[in-house]
Each structure stands twice: as structure tokens, then as C-alpha cells.
């Protein structure tokens, strides 16, 4: 949809829980400042992967593919 300008329209918000054992990461993916996916996981990458999957499914439901 945005082609090479996709990075101008998306942003990540990633937070680590204050508890060190075990740490939990929360990642949210925003597209044009609208949250399309948020997920919790034990690693930063896993949280981002899951948030991206959720965002993808939400976009498909809205008719984007």
C-alpha cells in the first residue's frame, strides 16, 4: 500500500517490564498512529513478531492484503 515509504507510516513501541526475572516484553505496531497489534512475549523479537502477525491479521480483516 505504501511501497517504499512504508517506514514513514509505521512505528514500533517496545517496552520491557520492570521485573528482571523473567523479563516480559510488550511490542505494539502503529500504522499512521493507529495501533494494529500489541503482544507480550519473553523476548523482544518474539513480542514484535507476534504484534506483526496480529497487525497483519487485522489488516486482512479490514480488506488490505
Automatic annotation (TrEMBL):
SUPFAM superfamilies: dsRNA-binding domain-like (SSF54768)
Residues in DRBM domain copies: 11-59
Record-linked InterPro entries: dsRBD_dom
One Pfam assignment: dsrm
Region annotated Disordered, chain positions: 1-24
Protein's name in the database: DRBM domain-containing protein
Gene source species: Rhizopogon vinicolor AM-OR11-026
